[in-house]
Amino acid sequence: MVPIPSAELRTSYSLYSLEFDPEDANRLIVAGGGGPGNHGVGNKITAIDASRPDTLDIVSEIELSRDEDSVATLVVGPRNKDSILLYAGVNSSAEDIVKGKNEHFRVFSLDQPSKAKASSEKPNITELSRTSLFATTEKDTYQRVLRLSAPFPGSAQVGAVATGFSKEPEIALFDVPNMGAATPKLRGNLELVKEAVDMDIIQTGDDSYQLAYCDEYEMRTMNIGKGISEGPKLVFTMPDEAAVTGNARPSFRSVRYLTPDFLLAVANLPKGGGVVLHGFRMPKNDKIHNKLKEKEEEEAKKGNGSADSTVTTDGDAKGTAGETVVARKVEEPKARLCISAKLPSSVTRATGLAVRNLSPPASPTAKQGDAQFVIAVTGQDSSITIYTLDHQSVADINLIVNLFKVTTFKNVHNGPISGVAFSYVVPPADSTSDEKAVAKKGSVRPEYVKLASIGSVGNSCIVHSLPLKKFVDKTAQTRRGGAPRAARYVLALKSQAPSPKGLLFFTALITLFIGIFVQSFLEIKGYSSPMIGARRFTPVSWQQNPRYGAGQGVVGNANYANSESLNPDGVHGFLASLLAGKDLKVQDGQAKKLILNVGAKDGIVQVSGHDAEVDSTAPTPKEWDELHETQKKAWKEKLKAAGHWGEGMGETIFKNILFGELGAVVGGLVR
């Protein structure tokens, strides 16, 4: 595997949130703190230079009031003249919250010194404004989740914040202010039945957006337009199989948009059973676009302005911007699960998710072509598992395929991982003019996509630099004299498709066990000649007389099997292992009689023909009926111990067999 460089930085405070600058992959913003109190740990926001893969440097930092809460959430907003806007979630002081005043939404400015002064001046972080977006005034409520739609040149952004620890959960939607303004403009508040575990927002058109949010078991979407909103709509519910399997349902942990058509979610299996990545195909719905068009036509006819309003899916107006909206659920098309992958068994619970498109579209209306997404999932064991996912587009058909694991970083931080984020990627320029435009803009085409993670216990920030490479699809058709095949970035690390070796080994093992069981059963019941010696290891009471079919007697002794003198029921197969390979040809219409003896030294049962050379001093072998009862009993015990005879076989099978005298060797070794 290609070496993956990493850099680490320790801060003086606990870290809870982080985000890369969308227009500079080398600028990372982190935030956190110790909360209110005189415990020596401040609440801070820090700007970090991550331009070098092996070093992280602090370039600017602001310490906030120690009477207020730590920074819980943070995103990087748009440019505002010569500065970058930072949006953060910070609860007001306990004194202000008791009075019903919690200005939790803060706006900060990160100055950008000119190139001439960049070497001598460090950028400053200053607070620009603070406001409250939530309708609730509960003292325990805080800003748990903060999301912004991805930035596009010339397009406005929409953001959303969700409550945490609130008895009246809600999501507040706001417009990102235009150039020169700092305070966001509230669109409205969406009341929830349950608190949102996670959410994401994506721009779907020039003036249209879609919000996706989930609680533990349900996922909903809400379409947002200019002055109009539609929804929310229930698009997926975790299946409840408790009545069938007795198991609890998996629960959502994180959701992220891939494209307007696809969404990725992380779900934790019940009882620490593991983590699953789910890719959903989102339902298509053009109602919001139709409503926008109708509204524009209506405004054109009336010739007057419009007030922002929120409209539910049943078409009822629910008031102007700033009002609380309670939307009624209606039956709508559902999201469909189209791909999934289970994380390694060592990851029993996911704590975070980050996704980056390596070939983002140039505008919100541009079609998403072939692209690769890189995915990071943080686990309870302080691990980060990297996956790649391919988006394929042919005509009007879009697919997501190849959700494969790349690698796992283990024990990344000394404690739980509190946040993870990817840097933004600028696609390869398609022409010389594009390259000049990129260079003029100041963006550096990356050789890496950076993965930043933070730990709240160790106050640590670690950045892994994942190498990229250019990829050209040689199967794509081109016209003579036309533009060359477009290049795009993919991860230079090789992904690992699920291996069938485990399944094949398990299948082979089960087949082997079944074969052994069947053969053992056939041998014990007398349907098969001994191959694994199962009769030697089972009680005699389980065994039955050998009952092979005609012509399937002693191995290698067809004449013995066909001998009429050995045809009594149960004789076939008797002493098969001892008689194998013996010359027992039929002479004068009769088969040779057999002689059983026991070796004087080893005590092993031996078989020979009647005309074989025998010890002249040894007692004359006798037929079964001529043996003394003590000899019969001794021979039965001997043959039974050796696995050649059982009580169920009876004594008839001893016909035409001569037995030597056991004498003092009774009780010798038999096998």
UniProtKB/TrEMBL annotation:
Which N-terminal residues, if any, form the signal peptide? none
Q: Give compartment(s).
A: Endoplasmic reticulum membrane; Golgi apparatus membrane
What InterPro entries does the record tag this protein with?
Sec12-like, WD40/YVTN_repeat-like_dom_sf
Membrane-spanning residues: 503-522
Q: Where is this region: Disordered?
A: 293-322
Q: Where is the composition biased (Basic and acidic residues)?
A: 293-302
Q: Which UniProt keywords apply?
A: Endoplasmic reticulum, ER-Golgi transport, Membrane, Protein transport, Repeat, Transmembrane, Transmembrane helix, Transport, WD repeat
Q: How does it sit in the membrane?
A: Single-pass type II membrane protein
Q: What this chain does, per the record?
A: Guanine nucleotide-exchange factor (GEF) required for the formation or budding of transport vesicles from the ER.
Could you say which protein family the record assigns here? Belongs to the WD repeat SEC12 family.
Please identify the protein, giving its name as recorded: Guanine nucleotide-exchange factor SEC12
What is the taxonomic lineage of the source species?
Answer: Eukaryota, Fungi, Dikarya, Ascomycota, Pezizomycotina
